[in-house]
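dude i think i finally got it to work??
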Amino acid sequence: MALIDFGGVKEEVVTREEFPLSKAQKVLENEVVGIIGYGPQGCGQSLNLRDNNIKVIIGQRKGGKGWNDALRDGWVEGKNLFSDIGEAVRKSTVVQYLLADAGQKEQWPVIKKNLSKGQALYFSHGFSIVFKEQTGVIPPPDVDVVLVAPKGAGRTVRSNYLAGSGINSSFAIFQDATGRAKERAIALGIAIGSGYLFPTTFEKEVLSDLTGERGVLMGAIAGVMKAQYDTLRAMGHSPSEAFNETVEEATQSLYPLIGKNGMDWMFASCSTTAQRGALDWSKRFETTVKPLFELLYRDVQAGVETKRVLDSCSAPDYRDKLETELNEWKDSEMWKAGAAVRSLRPEHWKKD
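look at this
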């Protein structure tokens, strides 16, 4: 593995230079990768594997969105698409268990019953393994148990691959029954389109991932945006102005600069007025928010968040309740204003 300096801390990572796709294809040439679940990750990873000439089959219950999406993407029932999840497991040498976390708990008895010695059981999230007391997911000792966790949504796994940019992933080995677990994991990580792979553990992956989703990646950003938008509206600013100053400028101008060049570069590229205010207020936000992040991490670590996920997502009326919650965002003034603002972006202008 390559030794890279990350801000003064040297870490070993796997790059595509040292482990090219051709090597991954060689490692996986006799494998049959069974994707269990055709949600965002199952869809993105399976299509990338197929494009990279890895033998792939899909296990997905018939009749729902996932099944229809698989048919749309060219998977053929009875050939490489199976409604019997147990059959898909038996036909695979690598079982990529990519159902939602609540779904993994529900389907685990089927998976476990059909696993056989020497297979690899692959996860993209440490949830089920780390919180086994809640999920019941305890693999048999004669299979490899590995993790490759793309640092992005399944749709991004696919779109970045098609754009030629890839997406970074972490990898971990929980159980090495064959002596090949690490090689299999890295090969699969490269074959799904990872830009580079960095080592972690199942526990570290799930704790950081659940904290990130609830924090900076989604929950905190959504809450902070709404707080600023509502404040501007209460102070008499129009919806258009409030949305542009809260969301549009961030996503269309500043966040891309951070992604491309870093926060320091973005600060240096702004006006001195913006620099001074951002530098001063960033410390105030940090001081205010840090205790909340510490509480969030403790709740994740203690299993409070995973229990909430399993309890709510397993309820028979979960999808109806979820739709109601999502519609509260969709139907709010802020995001209706956002739809109008997006429709006015230059890319939608009609050419003269």
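The domain at 212-348 is CATH 1.10.1040.10 (N-(1-d-carboxylethyl)-l-norvaline Dehydrogenase; domain 2).
im so relieved honestly
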